[in-house]
Amino acid sequence: MSFRSICRSILFGIPIGITFLDTVGYVAKVEGISMQPALNPVAEDSDFVFLSRWAVRDYDIKRGDVISLASPKNPNQKIIKRVVALQGDVVSTMGYKSQYVKIPEGHCWIEGDHTGYTLDSNTFGPVSLGLISAKALYIVWPPERWQRLETKLPESRKPLSIGL
Questions:
Q1: Which of 52, 81, 121, 135 is catalytic?
Q2: What is the pLDDT of residues 136-145, one digit of tens each?
């Protein structure tokens, strides 16, 4: 292979790679215990998940989806949480300033699976759909944990009323 063909491969490969990461998705390390037991069931180990940007391109999220978003408290930090309620839903909160919250248009209610060990909507309220960057679809590492992430909600966290 000549130097010229290597340079040409790099010049074409980098934009294609960047476009793939920006449009389709990427793999990210999940740190912390806020999503236990679904993610990082052993505190010392970290799961790696495939985050699909494509899956949220039209803000097509459902209750129970695990999503990645910019933290409302620190926009430079990415967090991963489960969607509990969507716009129009009424949710019973756990420690938020109001016992019940109706989710405003263009927002959702997110929570970590490990209640009491998570900063989520119970701390900062409904979050804007514009903060969502990706949906976690699969655990891709470690190999013994390869699996599709389930879209599910515990019965105790289902919204009190569903918006239409």
A1: 81
A2: 999 998 889 9
